[in-house]
Amino acid sequence: GKDSYLTTITINNVYHHGGNDPYGTYGEGGGQDGYGYQGESYPQEDDAASDVTEGHDDEDQMYEGEYQGIPHPDEVKAAQRAARAKARQAQSGATELEELAEQYEDIMEDCGHGRFQWTLFIVLGLALMADGVECFVVGFVLPSAEKDMCLSNGEKGMLGLIVFLGMMVGAIIWGGMADKLGRRKCLIWALTINCVFAFLSSFAQGYGFFLFFRLFSGIGIGGSVPIVYSYFSEFLQMDKRGEHLSWLCMFWMMGGIYASFTAWGIIPRYGWGFSMGTEFQFHSWRVFVLVCALPAITSLVGLLFMPESPRFLLENAKHDEAWMILKNVHDTNWRAKGQPEKVFQVTHIKAPKTQEDEFIEIQSATGTAMQRWGVRTLTLCKLVGPVLKTSPTNGTHVITRGGQITLTPLRFSYYGLGVWFPDMIKYLQQEEYDSKVKVFHRERVEDFRFNFSLENQIHKEGEYINDKFISIEMKSVKFEDSLFEDCYFEDIKSTETIFENCTIRATIFYNTDLYKEKFINCKLENTTFHHNKKGCHLDSEEENDILIYLVSFLGSLSVLPGNIISAMFMEKIGRVKIIGFSMLISAGCTFFLFLSFSEAAIIAWQCLFCGVSVAAWNGIEVITVELYPASKRATAFGVLNGLCKLAAILGSSIFASFVGVTKVVPILLSCTALVCGGLVALKLPDTREKILQ
């Protein structure tokens, strides 16, 4: 028969609570109650079966691979552990943290991969999905919000960038806090802030309040990416880490698909809104903002039933609490696999000695609440700097510098092209629209009633005498050097309509949106404006072109093949090769944009670019998690993610400025950045068989 590879870790406990155990009630009920995941079991993993259980006879149970000379998974793991133990003995100077990392890996292998990890996978995936949704919200509501709140071009640009600015700040803040206060606690707070301010933004009537609420909504959701990957990785064993972290990335794609579908289904339905007088308007795009908060709310509810990361607790010498969580993970997984009799055999887990806590607290008797908050904030700020100065012996300086050089051009190109693709498509559409303009020269219209809409027209040197324009729409109409005399305008809705160098005499404008600003260098003689429409208005449905939703949907959906391929080959090929080659291929995709002269070609290249570049995203996120130690993992991830959001802001701004001017600069910028990033990525250390420090 085979010997059990489960061993008891009996390392002396260096953390002492005195006579009382402050964690005595944590996870009360042990493995039977604990966190209580009582749903349907997930398919059993190949390496989950073990004959080291009661009621099994070694001679009756034969491993089917034995006939083919294939070693049993238990034997493979036992050999891996023996090799790690031998290597640890050879390193006479192994630190307590290194020993803890080895022991923790052994424990996670004993716990297996099962129901607990899959439940956590869904809960954290929804948080990542909320981050993906946040990136699309403002872009989808902007065409409607600009009319609802009378936004200028500058205000629209600021609204588009404010979310990324908030996410940049949030990533750095929440990443640092997660390493000091805990992954679960900080993620709950981050999602709560996102949900609260997203809800408030849907009711904000003024531009200032809407901008403020979206900023703090972005700060909240900014913490999801660094915390989610750090949190989930600490429940995964080494041989499954790369694959399952890559699968987790699919939720970001689902966020884009969710946002595209809900935007297409809700925003054009103007009847879904309501109003309370003229001061409070709640149009359909505000309903869409509320619906976009659902993934974050769902994840927030799920997190209430999840435990803290035991690795974080061990780093902070809370081994009793960590032991209870690990026991529950073990019992939950093996019950789901039909082996409830399998016993969690770990009795003690080594916890490192803790120095004086960096969080210097001012006691309530000697300081105010504001003073305590100030000290905590100052301490958190000091956490970020040391991450960039980590000892080279850990290899973390490589990912700090190399990760910046790799991730920054990737985000710069991805978000830059993400703005350039739809804007370029709109530009091509506008060019086609402008080519069909109708020009009327020196027309004279007298005693006529216009009861039909005017669209895409230019009227030059015309004369309009005693005419009536009643209940019509004017879209992209321009009157140049024309005369209006004794005319009457009533209930007019206009878009991109101007009067230039015109003479307007004895004319009345009643209940129109033709403000004086739309009359450029015009002579207004005995002309009156009565009951002009206040504020702005939502134009016809066709202004919310379905193409904006279709492009975003296809771009998100095209990520699926890249996600699947990267997940399947992350462990086989290695992180470094996936990052480097996918970035170089993405550079080739951008270069072929020189050959794109139609909307269909641009959409096709966008899909190919998104599908290839996502593999590099996945690889960078996995390697960042694996190279940094647990005490700095979320902080480092937050710093890198914050720098990437800054690159996204720069890319969006720079690329948008070249739309309609030239496509050479955006293509060369993205291509050069991706090639440089890909070459640097090939120099990063591979972490396929690296134990999580």
UniProtKB/TrEMBL annotation:
Boundaries of every Major facilitator superfamily (MFS) profile domain copy: 120-688
UniProt keyword terms in alphabetical order: Cytoplasmic vesicle, Glycoprotein, Membrane, Neurotransmitter transport, Phosphoprotein, Synapse, Transmembrane, Transmembrane helix, Transport
Comp. bias (Gly residues): 26-37
GO cellular component, one term: neuron projection
One annotated GO molecular function: transmembrane transporter activity
Pfam families in the record: LD_SV2, MFS_1, Sugar_tr
Region (Disordered): 19-58
InterPro entries cross-referenced by the UniProt entry: LD_SV2, MFS, MFS_dom, MFS_sugar_transport-like, MFS_trans_sf, Sugar_transporter_CS, SV2
GO BP annotations, alphabetical order: chemical synaptic transmission; neurotransmitter transport
Compartmental location: Cytoplasmic vesicle, Secretory vesicle, Synaptic vesicle membrane
UniProt membrane topology term: Multi-pass membrane protein
Chain ranges passing through the membrane: 118-145, 157-174, 186-204, 210-232, 244-267, 287-306, 578-597, 603-625, 637-658, 664-682
Main location: membrane
Family to which the UniProt record says this protein belongs: Belongs to the major facilitator superfamily.
Identification of the protein by name: Major facilitator superfamily (MFS) profile domain-containing protein
